[in-house]
């Protein structure tokens, strides 16, 4: 069971995760709204990332996991991604910046 991160730590990790880019869309996972929650697993001393994908059949989870490891280097020693599918992702989860990025590449958001 993960406990919530302090607001300052949450902001630091969220900012670092903006370096993780969805390989199909070219927009970071934070602004896409793919990060559902961040917590800390005290028992395993690890960051827990509850994350989804734009589609459950995405074959690029390995790429996202590798980019996450690179983005979090220097911020946490250990992390784990919980891939979650409920609630399903939708464009309403995107930040305003994410919507702007999607419009810039031709999506009607």
UniProtKB/TrEMBL annotation:
It holds the Pfam family FeS_assembly_P. InterPro entries: Fe-S_Maturation_MIP18, FSCA_dom_sf, MIP18-like. Coiled coil: none annotated. Residues 11-73 form the MIP18 family-like domain. Transmembrane segments: none annotated. PANTHER family: FE-S PROTEIN MATURATION AUXILIARY FACTOR YITW. This is Metal-sulfur cluster assembly factor. It comes from Amnibacterium setariae.
């Amino acid at each position: 069971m993960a406990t919530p991160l302090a607001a300052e730590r949450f902001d630091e990790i969220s900012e670092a995760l903006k370096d993780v880019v969805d390989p199909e869309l070219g927009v970071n996972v934070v602004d896409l709204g793919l990060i559902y929650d961040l917590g800390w697993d005290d028992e395993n001393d690890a960051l827990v990332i509850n994350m989804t994908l734009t589609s459950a059949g995405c074959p690029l989870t390995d790429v996202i996991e590798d980019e996450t490891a690179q983005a979090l280097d220097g911020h946490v020693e250990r992390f784990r991604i919980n891939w979650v599918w409920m609630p399903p992702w939708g464009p309403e989860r995107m930040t305003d910046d994410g919507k702007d990025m999607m419009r810039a590449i031709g999506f009607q958001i």
